[in-house]
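Saturday, quiet lab. Running sequence design on the structure tokens for the scaffold JK sent over.
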């Protein structure tokens, strides 16, 4: 089987995180337990993306969910963010957000996401960033991607029973 290239997973599996930034961001800097949905009751890609944006809005992490849905869907329509191995990283940048935020969902049942490997998605991490934080956005995507490439993490995440359990697992890996 031929490996397909994806911009988040270069062929050698390495992501260059040496871009200079005055603010090093960890996953825990942009994620809270309230921004994690387990189980995430969605049946398709549209519900999943819109639902995670709604979670961020409900908890005051964003103020304009309509704009955020627009930017994420604009990006998603260019190329699916279903990066394979049961994982998707929908993302977008906007001037109407002041800091990076992350929401994670573990669908109750895997959903079709037009992923590059054709497999359904079992875990989504939605990242929103300010338009002027390009380096931070790329760094966050890289950190999320590295986490999701870890097979042990994926197995645990796919089978987690609660948002707090998943958050604690991520926290344990960041320590």
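Result came back. Writing it out in full:
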């Amino acid at each position: 089987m031929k490996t397909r290239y994806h911009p988040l997973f270069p062929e050698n599996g390495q992501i260059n995180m040496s871009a200079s930034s005055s603010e090093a961001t960890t996953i825990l800097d942009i994620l809270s337990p309230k921004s994690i949905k387990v189980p995430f009751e969605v049946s398709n890609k549209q519900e999943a993306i819109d639902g995670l944006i709604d979670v961020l809005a409900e908890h005051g992490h964003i103020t304009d969910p309509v704009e955020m849905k627009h930017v994420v869907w604009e990006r998603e329509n260019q190329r699916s963010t279903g990066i394979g191995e049961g994982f998707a990283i929908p993302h977008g940048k906007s001037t109407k957000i002041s800091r990076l935020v992350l929401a994670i969902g573990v669908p109750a049942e895997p959903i079709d996401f037009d992923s590059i490997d054709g497999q359904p998605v079992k875990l989504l991490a939605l990242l929103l960033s300010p338009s002027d934080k390009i380096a931070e956005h790329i760094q966050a995507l890289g950190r999320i991607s590295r986490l999701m490439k870890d097979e042990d993490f994926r197995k645990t995440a796919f089978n987690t029973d609660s948002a707090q359990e998943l958050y604690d697992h991520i926290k344990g890996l960041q320590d």
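Notes for JK: The radius of gyration is 15 Å. The mean pLDDT is 85. Ask whether to fix the surface positions before the next round.
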